Amino acid sequence: MVTPSDARAEPFVAVPMLAALAEQAGVTIVENCAVRGLDLAAGKVAGVVTEQGRLRCDQVLVAAGAWSSLFLRHHGLSLPQLSVRASVAQTLPMPDMPEISGVDDVFAWRRRLDGGFTLAAGATHDFFCGPDAVRHFGKYIPQMRRDLSQTQIHPRAPAPGFPDGWLTQRRWSNDQETPFERMRILNPVPNRVLLRRVQMAFERALPDLGPTRLLRTWAGMIDVMPDTVPVLDAAPIDGLYVATGLSGHGFGIGPGVGRVMASLMRGDAPGHDLTRFRWSRFTDGSKIDIGPTF
Ligand SMILES: Cc1cc2nc3c(=O)[nH]c(=O)nc-3n(C[C@H](O)[C@H](O)[C@H](O)COP(=O)(O)OP(=O)(O)OC[C@H]3O[C@@H](n4cnc5c(N)ncnc54)[C@H](O)[C@@H]3O)c2cc1C
After folding, report:
1. Which atom of ligand 1 is nearest to the CA of 218?
2. In CATH, what number does 11-282 get?
3. Per the record, a Pfam family (predicted)?
4. 264 in Cβ contact with 270 (< 8 Å)
């Protein structure tokens, strides 16, 4: 299937441009500064406590990717978010081919600005067990039934300190260093065996391109929800909002999510029916209704 309205962008070009536009519009971006917890007064948000001190505000949006559930648990809130590892490879520049991106069950590809291709597994991902996986196991049964053959299960996180590591610190006081500071970037080692399979499948599918040579490989953790649908909602603490669980689609839908959340927090009509994205779907007895795959 070809969808001509699809677009693609290089993250390392697009994200700094979005950040620059936000700054032009008056946003202050502070990097390398973890939020350790909320500052609450009479049960309402009164600010955040960061590693550089306290900031007063009456609204906070938790959009912490794979760290969101750990952050929320610090405040007694349970969000059934887990994460899976996605591994990616970059090829050296290769002969021209039609400027289309594609995906099947085995591999996904897209052309890069530098003439190479970005290759990734089409559906296979690595899952690492941890306390949250045990805690939320029941909610993920429908997804496991569908995806089990595509999920490589590992007994523990790739390194200490991952969001759902067995030994990751889950309780702290806001004057202590937190897991968010100890691991500022989630940077797991890629699954090289899987990437080799992806590379071979790519070469078989597009033999006219000739052999591929990989320039580099990397991986990241994709945060998921039991139904692979994000949570875009007010949280059960006055002034707290959540936009997370983008389930592998956040680069594409992130700007739209930002606009919807800004409207929601300002009290304006968000312009979309957000019922599907409510947090309470995991606690109000609703059946897990799986959305698009990641
Ligand atoms: C290999 C790979 C390929 C992908 N490919 C695609 C794709 O082709 N298309 C697509 O649409 N999506 C893709 N995604 C998914 C996309 O990258 C994510 O959905 C998106 O980045 C999620 O955005 P986010 O803002 O929710 O979280 P993140 O991008 O993870 O941002 C959260 C930020 O919050 C910070 N943070 C966490 N905790 C704290 C704290 N306590 N204090 C301060 N800061 C904190 C983190 O450091 C991080 O910078 C891919 C992901 C991976 C890993």
Report:
1. 1
2. 3.50.50
3. DAO
4. yes
Taking the centre of ligand 1 as the mean of its atom positions, its distance from the CA of residue 250, in whole angstroms, is 7
Task: Output the furthest CA–CA distance in the chain (Å, rounded).
Answer: 66
Nearest Cα residue to atom 36 of ligand 1:
64
For residue 111, give the DSSP letter.
Answer: E
Which bin fits 293, alpha (ψ -120 to 50), beta or left (φ > 0)?
Answer: beta
Probe target for ligand 1 pocket from 72, 246, 293, with the most ligand atoms within 8 Å of CB: 246
Count how many residues are written for the chain.
294
Q: Which of 8, 52, 67, 221 to mutate to test the pocket of ligand 1 (most atoms within 8 A of CB)?
A: 67
User: Domain map of the chain by residue range?
Assistant: 11-282
Per-residue pLDDT at 96: 77
Amino acid 97: pLDDT:
74
DSSP lists the bridge partners of residue 210 as none
